[in-house]
Amino acid sequence: METRKLKNKNMQGINQIIENIQNAQILLGDCLEKLKKIEDNSIQLIVTSPPYADQRSKTYGGINPDKYVDWFLPISEELQRVLKPDGTFILNIKEKVVEGERHTYILELILAMKKQGWLWTEEFIWHKKNCYPGKWPNRFRDSWERILQFNKTKKFAMYQEEVMVPMGNWAKSRLRNLSEIDKIRDNSKVGSGFGKNISNWIGRDLAYPSNVLHLATETSNKNHSATFPKELPSWFIKLFSQKGDIILDPFLGSGTTCIVALELERQSIGIELKEEYYNLALQNIQNFQNQQSKQLCLI
Ligand SMILES: C[S@@+](CC[C@H](N)C(=O)[O-])C[C@H]1O[C@@H](n2cnc3c(N)ncnc32)[C@H](O)[C@@H]1O
Description:
The protein has helices at residues 16-22, 31-34, 57-60, 68-82, 105-115, 170-174, 231-240, 256-263, 275-298; strands spanning 3-5, 24-28, 43-48, 83-93, 97-98, 101-102, 119-128, 144-151, 165-166, 186-187, 195-196, 206-207, 212-215, 246-249, 267-272. By secondary structure, it is α/β, with parallel strands linked by helices. The chain folds into two domains: 9-164 and 211-298, Vaccinia Virus protein VP39 (Rossmann fold), CATH 3.40.50.150; 165-207, no CATH class. A nine-stranded mixed beta sheet has the order 1-2-15-14-3-4-8-7-13. The protein is globular and about 65 Å long. The model is unreliable at 6-21 (pLDDT under 50). The structure holds S-adenosylmethionine (SAM).
């Protein structure tokens, strides 16, 4: 197996960061094959962004949208095998436009994955807040992507307190004039079993976030055309895993998921098909390691 464990040559002392770096495994090859080397039920979280069909066929190939589901299902079967029962699979993807219409391969994929046994637990929206302006004859600029959450069971690990956000100014005015209903538990009118008591939020600084992530796209990485911003894997790693857990990205690209996993003191496994990007990911992780060791030397 072409696995390279990253070793820190410069530092001898025992510290958390070195241990984490030694825990990163980067594999070169087709993830369908490489996933077979990973143990059953061993991964806590999968965060990945596969090719969006053949949208970037010039840089790293791709799959015809009509064949996408057949291509992806054997991979998702392997992902299901390696994921822990309480683990989560986060899939960042967006359907492309084909002959003036949005293709339906993602909708078809969701249905097929449900048949495969996955629970489609949630859909987050990544709002790309720095999306550049443009003019198209039949649509507006595309400034969001899907982030699909799949699970094996309903009882998955989730650490909501890790991603809380400031309450914001709305709270000052909204919580100042509470109605009588706001002061008691107001059960959902649609019978969902959920309810809210707005007065519970008085005096609090932090609230739970929504399922819309407002993140700028990554523009500084010139060596890979489709890197996601570090905040994206970071948010999901904090939400769905704990220190020491194993995070997997089967379509690693430039290594973003592994770097963030290391920063957050998780172990990580990344798989990349193209040697050029595999080397780039190794280099990026090595650079991260060097930065960390420099910072430690300064302490
Ligand atoms: C959208 S990019 C991922 C970018 C990544 N999130 C980042 O931040 O750099 C998808 C990557 O999957 C790789 N890839 C495509 N097919 C693959 C396969 N069968 N197995 C592993 N990697 C694959 C491509 O070479 C590409 O680098």
